[in-house]
Amino acid sequence: MENKVSVGLLGLGVVGSGVIKLIENHQEKLAHQLGCSVQVKSVLVRDLEKNRDVNTNEIVLTTNPDDVLNDPEIDIVVEVMGGIDEAKQHILKAFSAKKHVVSANKDLVALHGPELQDAANRNKCDFYYEASVAGGIPILRGIVDGLSSDHIQKLMGIVNGTTNYILTQMDSEGVSYEDALKEAQELGFAESDPSSDVDGLDAARKMAILGRLAFSTAVDLEDVEVTGIRGIELEDLQYGDKLGYTMKLIGYANFDNHELEVNVQPTLLSKSHPLASVKNEFNAVYVYGEAVGETMFYGPGAGSLPTATAIVSDVISAIKNLRLGVTGNQFIEPHFKKELKTPDKRRGQYYVRLYAKDEAGVFSTISTLFHEREISFKRILQTPDKKHELAEIIFITHETSLENFRNALEKLKDLDVVLEVKSYYKVEGDAVT
Amino acid sequence: MENKVSVGLLGLGVVGSGVIKLIENHQEKLAHQLGCSVQVKSVLVRDLEKNRDVNTNEIVLTTNPDDVLNDPEIDIVVEVMGGIDEAKQHILKAFSAKKHVVSANKDLVALHGPELQDAANRNKCDFYYEASVAGGIPILRGIVDGLSSDHIQKLMGIVNGTTNYILTQMDSEGVSYEDALKEAQELGFAESDPSSDVDGLDAARKMAILGRLAFSTAVDLEDVEVTGIRGIELEDLQYGDKLGYTMKLIGYANFDNHELEVNVQPTLLSKSHPLASVKNEFNAVYVYGEAVGETMFYGPGAGSLPTATAIVSDVISAIKNLRLGVTGNQFIEPHFKKELKTPDKRRGQYYVRLYAKDEAGVFSTISTLFHEREISFKRILQTPDKKHELAEIIFITHETSLENFRNALEKLKDLDVVLEVKSYYKVEGDAVT
């Protein structure tokens, strides 16, 4: 057996540099675990002249992808270039050349994961992508191996660090969404165009990947219903806080009787929920298994070295398989058929904030409308705003179907006494009293 | 390849019953993952006549261990009988018969894990024991596979549900240690003889196992310094709370430059620490890796079905290896040499509560004594108790060596003005302000 395994990288940004550093710094542990040394042989870059913050003296930098993909010495290709089409073509080519692939590319895996997995299987290659979800947290392994014996019923994830940072700052500092976003941009937690984070698209991609592995079914990106946090109002966080809840952008997925529900939306989470204490840029995934009950995996969702640990752990898994002669044995194809859950089967509690006329009988009119749809209230807050002669009413419903709630909400807007429905959010768990 | 794998059980208590239920209920998922069915063929029991809460119609119950250990049809033996000597002999016999073993027995693995691993390696057998630490949480996989690429520097665990339940109740209900223990016993969270839990021995066993895997070094049970929570006073929890800390029984381990520190002790944990929100009977393990930074694995630490999920996940891993022909390839032997860290190298912050004479200059005498040993104070609380003409003084030090702290504590007791040192605890993290 060879005593050295060569790795090729596609891309040399912050994560790629982290991979090189980690492999260089952990030679002793790698040799102990694998019985061989691991070497980064060549790296595909866009610009050969660019200054790198990592030592590349013994590494071939190249602008020709074939130098990596067609090099017979390279057994494992690590894709950290990002983007969709080019990365996909490179990975497919790597599989054709019988190379194992580790990718950190959530956009690509969310969109084309099943097709890539298929190509891997056909070529008896390994395809790992732990780093594509929740950076340094070994959550895909947790689901695929650690909970392999259980029936996972529900996933809830804080899988986007930018939005969690913004919501945490709004909550703890009492600042507006706009100010918190600006601060996040200054600190480098948010991009100058923050759309993919704040509109929930990034979280949606991760939920599609998580759902596929947790439920062994073909979750497509378009199955994920998405609402972001753009323009969320501080008042709703503050009322939530008063009622025992904290606002988080939650990726939610459940699967039972072949019926699937996956969405990403701002959610008022009971302060006693394990996810409620996940602050700032940290990520966590809460997994509810039929037998195991509540588990949670917590850690950094991004960053050069945390993401690199997930990638190198995947490289180690692939090398172990390679040395044992058992590559290409992933049992993670979609297996169960799926249907999207219709709104009458989607259950939830809801928070509503509205302005109504400040007159007798208003609340009774509103509550009758909800009761007629079999929705009862769990908590109510009513504050008269004397200056404007209106009342601000906040209530949280008991659990109901999404269909009934949507229906009640429509009718609510038509009521004469209701001036404006300011906001409504899903609620998870019971408030701490 | 066979299309059925047979499993034998040693023991049929609550966990054994959970294993049978889980395997029975998950036949479809197992077949999908493994390409074969899994069957519990026979079970070693003490009493053939006992009523079981699980269907054993198609299972052979026997009082003769050889019916399991010498049955050539059985490939995998699951040890859930508990105890040390008998269980150990059975497991060694299983390895000699080339059977793979899954054990949930933390006492046995903590005491004789390396010897058993050795026997497994000699016979090219798999030996898995995920369920021995933190029940349903896949923490051993998290460390061995998920963070395989990283250098783990520090572990902190809430790995005993009984003591966490007692401390949570004291904290939230304001009850004494004795009352909380009594309640835990009534609810079945504590045994009638609670020694092994409240004195920290159970947690120590789990820390020895965790330390071995995290640091790839031979952590022995006697390396673990243990202080339990027996007789802990509500006052210390309340003062801690006032200062921004919550009391937890923390298993702590760190390893650097081949120097090891492992202990279990009640610790005042900053409320902002991820472990601080782990309540009641839940367990969690916090892992600090050089590259990944902070991660945490949270879930149920005990219970029939959660523990059974860990066991069956191990069975699945062993069957995958079996079908791929790669059993006995665990790379988890102790590799690095170790020395125990001496007290001058063990760093920490400390909380002290004492009674002193209520007279001028007392606090200055005390603080001078600490400053002479290069220990400064971070927080101070002083309450005069007029009735008894004494002062209750509480302080938290900045980080110092254990040697300096012990030395100062000794001298403190000799001071004329100090009437009694009531308590002292290790402190982790910075208080939430």
TrEMBL record, chains A, B:
<dbReference type="InterPro" id="IPR036291">
    <property type="entry name" value="NAD(P)-bd_dom_sf"/>
</dbReference>
<dbReference type="Pfam" id="PF03447">
    <property type="entry name" value="NAD_binding_3"/>
</dbReference>
<dbReference type="InterPro" id="IPR019811">
    <property type="entry name" value="HDH_CS"/>
</dbReference>
<dbReference type="InterPro" id="IPR016204">
    <property type="entry name" value="HDH"/>
</dbReference>
<comment type="pathway">
    <text>Amino-acid biosynthesis; L-methionine biosynthesis via de novo pathway; L-homoserine from L-aspartate: step 3/3.</text>
</comment>
<keyword id="KW-0791">Threonine biosynthesis</keyword>
<protein>
    <recommendedName>
        <fullName>Homoserine dehydrogenase</fullName>
        <ecNumber>1.1.1.3</ecNumber>
    </recommendedName>
</protein>
<keyword id="KW-0028">Amino-acid biosynthesis</keyword>
<keyword id="KW-0560">Oxidoreductase</keyword>
<keyword id="KW-0521">NADP</keyword>
<comment type="pathway">
    <text>Amino-acid biosynthesis; L-threonine biosynthesis; L-threonine from L-aspartate: step 3/5.</text>
</comment>
<dbReference type="InterPro" id="IPR005106">
    <property type="entry name" value="Asp/hSer_DH_NAD-bd"/>
</dbReference>
<feature type="domain" description="ACT">
    <location>
        <begin position="351"/>
        <end position="426"/>
    </location>
</feature>
<keyword id="KW-0486">Methionine biosynthesis</keyword>
<dbReference type="Pfam" id="PF00742">
    <property type="entry name" value="Homoserine_dh"/>
</dbReference>
<dbReference type="Pfam" id="PF01842">
    <property type="entry name" value="ACT"/>
</dbReference>
<dbReference type="InterPro" id="IPR001342">
    <property type="entry name" value="HDH_cat"/>
</dbReference>
<dbReference type="GO" id="GO:0004412">
    <property type="term" value="F:homoserine dehydrogenase activity"/>
</dbReference>
<dbReference type="InterPro" id="IPR045865">
    <property type="entry name" value="ACT-like_dom_sf"/>
</dbReference>
<dbReference type="InterPro" id="IPR002912">
    <property type="entry name" value="ACT_dom"/>
</dbReference>
<comment type="similarity">
    <text>Belongs to the homoserine dehydrogenase family.</text>
</comment>
